[in-house]
Automatic annotation (TrEMBL):
One Pfam entry name: CD36
Membrane-protein topology: Multi-pass membrane protein
Family that this chain belongs to: Belongs to the CD36 family.
Descriptive protein name: Putative plasma membrane glycoprotein cd36
Record organism: Xenopsylla cheopis
Keyword Disulfide bond: yes
Keywords in alphabetical order: Cell membrane, Disulfide bond, Glycoprotein, Membrane, Receptor, Transmembrane, Transmembrane helix
The keyword Plastid is assigned to this record: no
GO molecular function (one): scavenger receptor activity
SS bond partners: 264-332, 293-349, 334-338
Subcellular location: Cell membrane
GO cellular component, one term: cytoplasm
Length: 416
């Protein structure tokens, strides 16, 4: 009996081993199947979570982001405007600020287009001054270039003699100078009146381009609470293809820009909220900026940790602000007035005002610009533009968007 039980035990052990081996084989096969299928499963989950639809989890944070956004504005106080015509003296700039505003963004006029998986909208933002986060008051007085007079002179320099004389006469009649002294509040959101603006509005035929669309000048005049200044967007939702999510398909109802030619006319950069998931370090980031009416390229710099989360840091470099001097493919951004590399001519989309954008303090720009003024000290930490993205989801972890607005000052025959 003991022997039989012994044989029975051996048989049961053999069957158990067989069952375990079979189960192990099945689990191994299932594991291989799951591993093979996991990327597709993960992509499907990611697409459901991230793609933008009226009832998706990403809709609310896209429409009204809950993160705190700060707009820090620094202004240059021109301390020696009386020496402008003295060729032995450079303009001296004193940086003041920051003047911090808390930005509350929103989206308006949202229209869904399921037939092509896009959404149309306008961007709106409310700005609230933050005195505690600021260094200075909105009542601080700043001496700066007279943008209105410079814009008038720049536009008129190619006009027929009669029209040019009218502008020149207006400048003399109204006592226009090359510089103005205004309060920070006036230079930014409140705006200030100028007789040249009134003249242009009362005689639209003088400008040759129709009625002037504003009654005051201020860098952010009418922007607070407005949704019309940054234009009309049409953006891919990623519902059909996550590689397209956040990409601008049309801006102001067009898929190309009238201000540039060739590849430079494209609008197909990110709208700034969504970036495609599954990033590689070699893929550049393209961002469309409505304020500059163009897309910008950012290249991978390094891996960084943001609150214990791995991110790829993409930064703006020489290529971002080049106009063909360093990278021939950027020549189409020159826009008729090729200047040394480092500043971007956006005058065509700023009502003809000779506006050029650069990184602050001419960071990454040709030394020509720093040599022309005093008081500027470029630094990557203070003046670089970077975007940190979580590579798997494409979610932004950190963004520092820094730019400087510059005005071209040049003599024009027939304009004093």
């Amino acid at each position: 009996t003991l022997q039989l039980r012994g044989k029975g035990v051996k048989m049961r052990r053999s069957c158990t081993s067989c069952a375990l081996a079979t189960s192990g084989l099945i689990l191994t096969i299932l594991g291989i199947i799951i591993i093979a299928a996991w990327p597709s499963v993960f992509d499907a989950i990611l697409q459901k979570q991230l793609s933008l639809t009226p009832d998706s989890e990403s809709y609310k944070p896209w429409k009204t982001p809950a993160v705190t956004l700060n707009l820090d504005i620094y202004l240059f106080n021109w301390t020696n405007p009386e020496d402008l015509t003295n060729t032995s003296t450079k303009p001296i700039m004193e940086q003041l600020g920051p003047y911090r505003f808390r930005e509350v963004p929103d989206k308006e006029n949202i229209t869904w287009h399921p037939e092509n998986n896009t959404v149309s909208f306008r961007k709106k933002a409310d700005f609230f001054f933050d005195p505690e986060g600021s260094v200075g008051s909105l009542d601080d007085e700043i001496t700066t270039v007279n943008v209105v007079a410079l814009a008038a002179g720049h536009q008129a320099h190619n006009w027929p003699t009669l029209r040019k004389s009218a502008v020149n006469m207006g400048m003399g009649l109204y006592g226009e100078e090359r510089h103005v002294t205004k309060r920070v509040q006036e230079l930014l959101f409140d705006g200030f009146e100028d007789p040249l603006i009134d003249m242009a509005r009362s005689m639209p035929s003088l400008t040759g381009g129709g009625a002037v669309p504003f009654d005051k000048f201020g860098w952010f005049y009418t922007r607070n609470g407005s949704s019309h200044l940054t234009g009309h967007f049409n953006m891919a939702t990623g519902a059909d293809d996550m590689s397209k999510i956040g990409r601008v398909e049309r801006w102001n109802y067009a898929d190309h820009l009238p201000f540039f030619e060739k590849e430079c006319a494209g609008v197909d950069g990110s709208s700034g909220t969504f970036y495609p998931p599954g990033r590689s370090r070699e893929d550049p980031v393209w961002l469309f900026s409505p304020d500059m009416c163009r897309k910008l390229r950012f290249d991978y710099e390094k891996d960084v940790m943001v609150k214990d989360v791995l991110g790829y840091k993409y930064t703006g470099g020489d290529r971002t602000v080049d106009n063909g001097t360093l990278y021939p493919e950027n020549e189409c951004f020159c826009n008729g007035e090729c200047v040394p590399s480092g500043v971007m001519n956006i005058s065509a989309c700023r009502y003809g005002t000779p506006v050029f954008m650069s990184f602050p303090h001419f960071y990454k720009a040709d030394p020509y610009y720093l040599d022309a003024v005093e008081g500027l000290e470029p630094s990557q930490d203070k003046h670089g533009f970077h975007i940190v993205l979580e590579p798997t989801t494409g979610i932004p972890l950190d963004v520092a968007a820094r730019f400087q607005v510059n005005i071209l000052m040049a003599p024009h025959p027939g304009i004093k």
